[in-house]
Amino acid sequence: MNHDKRIAIYPGSFDPLTNGHVDLIERSLKLFDEVVVAVLHNYKKEGVFTVEERISMIRETFPDTPQIQVESFDGLLVDFARIKGAAAIIRGMRAASDFENEFQMALLNRKLSKEVQSVFLITGQRWIFTSSSSIKEAALFGGDISDMVPIPVLKKLMGQYPKLHKTIEAKKINSSKICPVDL
Ligand code: PNS
Predict the structure, then answer these.
(1) pLDDT of 142-172, one tens digit each?
(2) Chain-centre distance of CA 142, in angstroms?
(3) Predicted TM-score of the model (pTM)
């Protein structure tokens, strides 16, 4: 383990990155010197975006932050954590419904490795209802999710979902003064 730098792994599917994730990454940097955002290469479950696309969106969101590394991994998370010299696995907890799954995962990871600790951060209140899957569903039907994802992700979602593209374009035309979207 690297004792000079406190490294944390922040694993997930990130299909795609949301502002809830961004908030967690930024807060993790207050606790750790370096955060490795680890995108799971899940051969069983295909996402909307490829792993390479997810990684690009995350890197574009944090272009000037060398303390944030973005990588993909497969196999066991604890093995990847060991390779990276990480002291902790960061997970966000939105509500009680997240707890069961996170609790099981943390116990299993602890059984598999005693070298890495699970650290839970409570999701920022503003992002409690934000999840990658609900964003994709809303985007599919043209729901305005522009304040729930970073700009690089919004652009990518607009390319993927024509109805979202229409919604955002209409918003820019109708309310250019109050529109927070700067594309
Ligand atoms: O964003 P997600 O889908 O909730 O992330 C789940 C993730 C990637 C953290 C979890 O599936 C994982 O760690 N997978 C790697 C395989 C592994 O180590 N499994 C044992 C612990 S669950």
Answers:
(1) 999 999 999 999 999 999 999 999 999 998 8
(2) 22
(3) 0.93
- On whether residue 165 sits in a domain, the answer given is no
| Tens digits of residue pLDDT in 43-63 | 888 899 999 999 999 999 999
Q: Does residue 139 belong to any structural domain of this protein?
A: no
C-alpha 155 to ligand 1 mean position (Å): 27
152 within a domain of the structure (yes/no):
no
Of the listed 59, 94, 155, 171, which one is catalytic? Answer: 94
Domain that holds residue 31: 7-129
Catalytic residue among 54, 84, 132, 156: 132
Task: Give the binding-site residues of ligand 1, using a 6 Å CB cut-off.
Answer: 11-13, 40, 76-77, 105, 108-109
Cα–Cα distance between 165 and 160 in angstroms, integer? 9
In whole angstroms, what is the distance from residue 16 CA to residue 159 CA? 13
Q: Please tell me the distance from the alpha carbon of residue 94 to that of residue 123, in angstroms, as a whole number.
A: 5
Q: Is 171 domain-assigned? A: no
Report how many domains make up the chain.
Answer: 1
